[in-house]
From TrEMBL, chain A:
Topology with respect to the bilayer: Multi-pass membrane protein
Recorded superkingdom: Bacteria
Keyword terms of this UniProt record: Cell membrane, Membrane, Transmembrane, Transmembrane helix, Transport
GO biological process, alphabetically ordered: transmembrane transport
PROSITE patterns in the record: ABC_TM1 (PS50928)
Name listed for the protein in its UniProt record: Peptide/nickel transport system permease protein
Automatic annotation (TrEMBL), chain B:
SMART domains for this protein: AAA
Keywords: ATP-binding, Cell membrane, Ion transport, Membrane, Nickel, Nickel transport, Nucleotide-binding, Translocase, Transport
Naturally occurring in which organism (per UniProt): Paenibacillus endophyticus
Family to which this protein belongs: Belongs to the ABC transporter superfamily.
UniProt-recorded name of the protein: Nickel import system ATP-binding protein NikD
Transmembrane segments: none
Source species taxonomy: Bacteria, Bacillati, Bacillota, Bacilli, Bacillales
Reactions this protein catalyses: Ni(2+)(out) + ATP + H2O = Ni(2+)(in) + ADP + phosphate + H(+)
PANTHER family, sorted: NICKEL ABC TRANSPORTER, ATP-BINDING PROTEIN, OLIGOPEPTIDE TRANSPORT ATP-BINDING PROTEIN APPD
GO molecular function per UniProt: ABC-type nickel transporter activity; ATP binding; ATP hydrolysis activity
One Pfam family cited in the UniProt record for this chain: oligo_HPY
Annotated InterPro entries: AAA+_ATPase (IPR003593), ABC_Ni/Peptide_Import (IPR050388), ABC_transporter-like_ATP-bd (IPR003439), ABC_transporter-like_CS (IPR017871), Oligopep_ABC_C (IPR013563), P-loop_NTPase (IPR027417)
Gene Ontology terms: biological process: peptide transport
Oligomer and partners: The complex is composed of two ATP-binding proteins (NikD and NikE), two transmembrane proteins (NikB and NikC) and a solute-binding protein (NikA).
């Protein structure tokens, strides 16, 4: 067993390094080819007061005058030593910017992820157990609507109804505007997280609910459920003892593989609600050609998505003995 | 009075044909069967004759689109869902057909133990495992780790309760080693001797006549003959129905004689005897009306000519 885990981890680590190397090369090349001039976007409104010489100096300061390969090697060399560089727009170490933003985003994503997992699984299972009833129709209808609705649009709607018309929750930002950092309460953080969190969770609910429903219908029709029923098992016990494990597989895979969509969704949700998280920082870094920050964010999100997929793989092995045990274990 | 009494059982399925048009397909019609306490009744017939459906109908686990009429009585009472809830897995046990009836994600030991099982059942099962040559370690295996024969034995051991009064065994023996088959059969025999009623569904006539008291021959969803097991001998001259004779004579040891044609699928509505178009002695009257069951020489037969 221990040896199995060691092999599993070893393989995954090798893959992770290959993946990170490839992703950083591609991203670096894409940024280098992009039409955005980092110097121009840095100067912004001061364009009249900055001369051509000064521009060249800024470019030289950032090393933008060097050829692509050299810049990449320099960046990669620093990265290996643990230095991710300095963000051009925030003038702070990239690690620090990401660290701060990450704390905001991670709570938001965790909230949305948990919410969509629990809601999706529950309504999916409920729909399957009452297959063909009005409840099932309402749930599937709702899921199809959600699945075909863009998250940012839902975000705008929520903002309009809940924040603007009803005034129940703040319109945006991570903390109340104009308040000293010291006087922001935990409650304030939560209040600001609810709307972006719900918006973000909507992306994940429909696929989990629909897959769970489909799988549970299949399982409830299977021979082994028939046999369990023939032996007097029924109701909640039948579901929890015999069906739950079988439908957990697709739900777990989807839930953990959704880390990528979660990150992508966070970019939109944070943008709509001006929520100061990783997603918003990514948009900024991209639009203003902040290469070190963008690279840092890309590596960070790659790691995030990779972790999700690896966890899905790992839990799959835990839940399904057919993957864990060798067929030859029989005697 | 018989412990299990099935009268006029008909099963049909609602199916969708082309788009949303519904159609009922009848797969079993007016089946009669009775099993007494301490008796083994074997149900033999070709694949698709409705043997497993009979088992599922008795257990009340037919699929949702199945409609059935007729009555199933257990100990004189109508065996409805209410009564079944009391008896399933308790007095009435099912030995299912294949390894797919085991939950693929649960260890054998833990799924054999239902909520009704106590220490007595566990030790009973332990004894049966030993008798069938299954090691203790099998309890810790998952169904996919079992070989075909092992899976059968595990399934047979699910009915290892002395509390059972009726056991419905659906093809429990194929794939098992001959020695194990004998062991499993003697297990059922022993249960019957202890007063249990056993409905032994099989297509292995030789196994059936070894342990059964009576054999019911089922053809296209109807019982065409119920005969004492001892009638299955020689050329089958003791048998009443032409299909039973044909079935007996088709065995390798009894001439290996095939008959032409195939079992009718019940989606077409047959007016007359189900076996008429394959029967050597069919006459016009066989085509017009399905013969009713009648008593004959200590058995039952649904044929106009049987003597």
């Amino acid at each position: 067993m221990l040896r199995g885990i060691a092999v599993f981890t070893g393989k995954k680590i090798i893959r992770l390094f290959l993946l990170l190397a490839t992703v950083s090369m591609i991203t670096f090349a894409l940024v280098a080819m992009s039409p955005i001039d980092p110097v121009q976007s840095y100067i912004g409104a001061d364009v009249m007061r900055v001369g051509a010489e000064q521009r060249e100096e800024i470019a030289a300061y950032w090393g933008l005058d060097k050829p692509f390969a050299e810049r990449f090697m320099k960046w990669a060399g620093a990265l290996i030593q643990g230095d991710m560089g300095t963000s051009m727009i925030y003038r702070e170490a990239v690690t620090k910017v990401i660290g701060e933003r990450f704390m905001h985003s991670v709570w938001l994503m965790a909230f949305a992820w948990t919410l969509s997992g629990i809601i999706g699984f529950t309504v999916g299972a409920a729909a399957a157990l009452r297959k063909g009833s009005w409840l099932d129709r309402v749930i599937t209808g709702f899921c199809y609507t959600l699945a075909s609705t863009p998250a940012f649009w839902v975000g705008l709607l929520l903002m309009m109804i809940v924040a603007v018309w009803l005034g129940l929750l703040p319109v945006g930002l991570g903390v109340p505007a104009g308040m000293l950092a010291g006087s922001v309460t935990f409650f304030d953080y939560i209040r600001h997280m609810i709307l972006p969190g719900i918006t973000l969770s909507i992306v994940g609910i429909a696929p989990i609910a629909l897959h769970t429903r489909q799988k549970l219908i299949e399982v409830m029709d299977s021979d082994f459920i028939l046999f369990a029923r023939a032996r007097g098992e029924r109701g909640a016990r039948l579901f929890f003892r015999h069906a739950l494990r079988n439908i957990a597989l697709p739900a777990i895979t989807l839930q953990f593989a959704s880390f990528g969509e979660l990150f992508g969704g966070a970019v939109l949700a944070e943008q709509v609600f001006s929520y100061p998280g990783l997603g918003q920082a990514t948009v900024e870094a991209g639009l203003r050609g902040d290469v070190p920050l963008l690279m840092g964010l890309v590596l960070c999100s790659t790691l995030f998505v990779f972790t999700g997929n690896t966890l899905a793989d790992y839990f799959y092995h835990i839940v399904d003995p057919r993957l864990r045990l060798e067929k030859g274990a029989r005697r | 009075m018989a412990l299990l009494e099935v009268t006029q059982l008909s099963i049909s399925f609602l199916q969708y044909t082309k788009g949303s048009r519904q159609q009922t397909v009848t797969v079993m019609e007016n089946l009669d069967l009775a099993v007494n306490e301490g008796e083994i009744v074997a149900v033999v017939g070709a694949s698709g004759s409705g043997k497993s459906l009979l088992a599922h109908a008795i257990m009340g686990i037919l699929p949702a689109n199945a409609v059935y009429s007729g009555s199933i009585r257990y100990g004189g009472e109508l065996l409805d869902e209410h009564l079944l809830r009391q008896y399933r897995g308790n007095e009435i046990a099912l030995v299912p057909q294949s390894v797919t009836y085991l939950n693929p994600l649960m260890r054998v030991g833990s799924q054999l133990q239902t909520k009704l099982d106590g220490k007595a059942q566990a030790s009973e099962r332990k004894g049966l495992f030993k008798r069938l040559g299954l090691g203790e370690h099998v309890n810790r295996l998952f169904p996919f780790q079992l070989s075909g024969g092992m899976a059968r034995k595990v399934l047979v051991s699910t009915a290892a309760h002395s509390r059972s009064r009726l056991i419905i065994a659906d093809e429990p023996t194929p794939g098992m080693h001959p020695a194990d088959v004998a062991e499993a059969l003697s297990h059922f025999k022993q249960l019957a001797e202890e007063g249990c009623a056993v409905l032994f569904i099989t297509h292995d006539i030789e196994a059936a006549i070894q342990i059964a008291n009576r054999v019911a021959v089922i053809y296209a969803g109807a019982v065409v003959e119920v005969a004492p097991a001892s009638d299955f001998q020689g050329e089958g001259e003791q048998l009443r129905h032409p299909y039973s004779k044909a079935l007996w004579q088709a065995l390798p040891g009894n001439g290996f004689i095939p008959i032409a044609g195939s079992q009718p699928s019940k989606s077409m509505d047959l007016q007359g005897c189900l076996f008429a178009d394959r029967c050597m002695s069919a006459v016009d009257s066989c085509m017009s009306k399905q013969p009713e069951p009648r008593q004959l020489r200590g058995g039952t037969v649904r044929c106009l000519h049987a003597t």
